[in-house]
Amino acid sequence: MDCQATDLNTACRHVFMARVRGHADYPDDARVEASLVQWNRLMAMLDAQLARHAHVAGDDFTLADIVLGLSTQRWRSTPGAKPVLANVEVWFERLRRQPGFAAHVDNGVA
Predict the structure, then answer these.
(1) 109 lies in some domain
(2) Quick one: which of 10, 36, 57, 89 has the most CB atoms within 10 Å?
(3) Torsions phi, psi of 55, nearest 5?
(4) Distance between alpha carbon 9 and the CA centroid of its chain, in Å?
(5) Does 19 reside within a domain?
(6) Distance between CA atoms of 55 and 64, rounded to whole angstroms?
(7) What are phi and psi of 29, to 5 degrees?
(8) Can you tell me the distance from the alpha carbon of 97 to that of 7, in angstroms, rounded to the nearest whole number?
């Protein structure tokens, strides 16, 4: 979960705030693009982990899935070029079937 708070949140800040929130404090297009590139790299690391296990921390659903599921929801909703990450997609679809996840994360609010 530390990686979500320190790595993913840092990587996504500029692109998410500029393209999803439309925040005026993030006007630098080069920095926004660099943010997306870094975010994509970290999401590819998640995809590699999910190639080995059904969930983030192993074979059981844990709090790590909820935390990284939120980051994945933001990544999916942010405009920009993103790689196809098949393992992330399969895992995310499983998360979407969790009633709490559907109500509080996959609810159209970015």
Answers:
(1) no
(2) 36
(3) -135, 170
(4) 9
(5) yes
(6) 8
(7) -60, -40
(8) 27
Paired tokens of 56:
């983030």
Domain count along the chain: 1
Residue 35 lies in a domain: yes
Rounded distance between C-alpha atoms, residue 98 and residue 81, angstroms: 28
In-domain check, residue 82:
yes
**What ranges in the chain are assigned the alpha helix state H?**
2-3, 9-19, 29-52, 63-77, 86-96, 99-104
Which amino acid is it at 101?
F
Tokens of 61: 């659903």
Provide the residue-wise pLDDT of the chain in tens; the chain has 110 residues. 577 778 888 999 999 999 999 999 998 999 999 999 999 999 999 999 999 999 999 999 999 999 999 999 999 999 999 999 999 999 999 999 988 888 888 777 76
pTM over 0.85: yes
Q: What CATH number is associated with residue 86?
A: 1.20.1050.10
CA 46 to chain centroid: 9
- Asked if 43 contacts 7 with a C-beta cutoff of 8 angstroms, the reply is no
